[in-house]
Sequence to fold (396 residues):
Amino acid sequence: MMSMILPRIVSVCFIAELFLAGAPAFAHTDGMAGGFLSGFAHPVAGPDHIAAMVAVGLWGAFLGAPAIFMLPIVFPLVMALGGVMGILGVPIPAVETGIATSAVVLGLMVALAARPSLWIAALLVGAFAIFHGHAHGAELPAGADAVAYSLGFVVATGLLHLSAIAFGLLRRWPAGQIAVRATGGAIALAGIAFLVGQQ
Amino acid sequence: MIAPGGAVLAALLLATDPAHAHDVVAGVGGFYGGLLHPLLVPAHVLALTSLGLLIGQQTPRQRAGLLGLFAASLIAGIMVIVAAFAVTSAGYAILTVTAAAGIAVAVARPVPMLVSGPLAMMAGAAIALDSVPQEISMLTTFVALIGTAIGAFLVTMLLADLTVYLKRDWQRIGLRVVGSWIAASAILVLALRLARG
Fold:
């Protein structure tokens, strides 16, 4: 039952993500709708963030239950803690390097179909979530509706995960498994490019 | 010995300042403006959603108790406003309740009344105190606040009832995801407000 319904839900999320991400730019506009769209656009505007979020979702799909369900629950909460550190100006060294590294490491986990224990996977993903949250928190615009912005920002991140989980469910078929692992490899390569680009 | 809920409510009520009115809904005032208020303020929507989901996850006896505490604290908050006082830090209290309730929804474990009771009371009082209408007379202010209390209570009760009916695995997981997203948003906004003063 679960296997029938979950793909439908995440597919709807994926379509919603595409439509909302394709909306005209309303960054820094006043009001709730502008704040939400501005926040929603923020995570999907950075390719390094997208790569890592997609890798997290794909890895969750590879790890299966309960990781596949815990991921979209735990990641936003840990990311929010990183966001708090960014907002309060608590310094974290090499944030951008950490974000690029997250794409490399998580992409490799998918490409290699790594299956560590849940707590190791959660620790790894949580550690990288701090970097992503810190970067987002430090870049929160001053003019936007704070509640609407943060909600849009968190929902966009969550939908990226769910979209990737939907794609990751293709691993049940041999061809799908190749496609998912190849995507993981591509993400790892993109992460290396992000790292090189920072030099 | 003072109950934790009473202490929370007392702390909120003691941290009072003269009331500051704000727009409820442009063009809609009085009872209906108040009724719509909880649905049109994003922070209130998040607070009521997380609280409603949290209440819905509890046992039937706890649900009734929590809804009763929530209603009582809404009324207490209204009484404070009618006495021409408002809590300037009610926004912080709302975000704190939202974050705590969101985390509890995400964790999806039974929450003792010792914890959920004060949360419900804090939510009710803070939402009432953060809903000062822009009315001139005491009567219209009171009517608008009654509308706010009814609106907030109905939203919370409906969400709690809806949660009870969501029993499938994927529905329960969906609720937890929503809880974590709400909590993350509230935590970010709380930090933002604390940082910007």
Remarks:
- Residues 2-198 of chain A form one domain.
- Chain A has one domain: 2-198.
- The longest helix of chain A spans residues 174-198.
